[in-house]
Amino acid sequence: MSEPILHSVHPGAQLALLREADHRIANQLTVAVELLRGQLGTVRRGPEFVPREAVCDILQDAVAKVAGIAHLHRVLAQAQADDVDLGSLLISVIREVISALAQRERLRVTQRLSTGCIVSKDRAQILSLIVVEILMNAIKHARPKEIPIELHVACVRAASGGIVLELSDDGVGLPHGFDIGRDGGVGFRLIRTLANDIGATLQVESDHLGLSFRLQLAEDLAVAAG
Questions:
Q1: Contacts of 175 (CB under 8 A, 6+ apart)
Q2: Beta partners for residue 201, in sequence order
Q3: Positive or negative, the Cα torsion across 115, 116, 119, 121?
Q4: Are 82 and 121 in contact (CB under 8 A)?
Q5: What is the 3-state secondary structure (H, E, C) of the chain?
Q6: 3-221 — its CATH code?
Q7: Of 184, 186, 76, whose CA–CA distance to 127 is shortest?
Q8: CA-to-CA distance for 49 and 57, rounded, in angstroms?
Q9: Which of 42, 90, 97, 205 has its CA 20 to 30 A from that of 49?
Q10: How confident is the model at residue 18 (pLDDT cuts 50, 70, 90)?
């Protein structure tokens, strides 16, 4: 898929593109490894005999996340510009993850995407990984398995010039007494860590009507739309 792009580029630039691709692949594989380690730790801490359904859920979670990472790499590797439209990228990643899920019919995604949500490839990669974690969290915890879930995704330019990314579900919300800054499993910890890595402000709100994540990138971290 990438050969036509590379053939049209100067040999020196080809090498730079390949190095960037290798770096990006390594980063994404590292995330995949950490996700699988987290799942392994969950199994080790659990009962000696794990029900088949629980094992299927763990493997399904891993399959969906790896599928999302693979799709993310393909899209970013084929993008010739250094910056990408975050809204379009997120929708394509979400679709890829949902297509890998056994219970894909349970999830309905609505969107509100503004033009001009342009970010660097590196930040797009991290924000996409955060979105995949939030998506999987909603599928696993928002509602009992037999009840459909609605996930709303919004990406808009803030009045300050930065970018606001919001994801919310219509589930039961977080448990009473849940500490947003401390509690949660591997997925929640990863969301906090990745948001901090790119300097994004993370706000989480929860009530009986659902769970909402809000990430804000300051103006100096967003890219001016051209």
A1: none
A2: 216
A3: positive
A4: yes
A5: CCHHHHHCCCHHHHHHHHHHHHHHHHHHHHHHHHHHHHHHHHHHHCCCCCCHHHHHHHHHHHHHHHHHHHHHHHHHHHCCCCEEEHHHHHHHHHHHHHHCCCCHHHEEEEEEECCCCEEEHHHHHHHHHHHHHHHHHHHHHCCCCCCCEEEEEEEEECCCCCEEEEEEECCCCCCCCCCCCCCCCHHHHHHHHHHHHCCCEEEEEEECCEEEEEEEECHHHCECCC
A6: 3.30.565.10
A7: 76
A8: 15
A9: 97
A10: low
Sequence length of the chain is 226
Least Cα distance to 201 among 213, 217, 187 occurs for 217
Which residue, chain included where needed, has tokens 């997925």?
A: 187
Token digits for 16? 């730079």
State the pTM of this model: 0.74
Confidence of residue 214 (pLDDT cuts 50, 70, 90): very high
Can you tell me the distance from the alpha carbon of 98 to that of 60, in angstroms, rounded to the nearest whole number? 11
- Residues with Cβ < 8 Å from 6, sequence gap 6 or more? 14, 17, 18
Q: Where do the domains of the chain lie?
A: 3-221
Q: Report the pLDDT averaged over residues 44-62.
A: 76
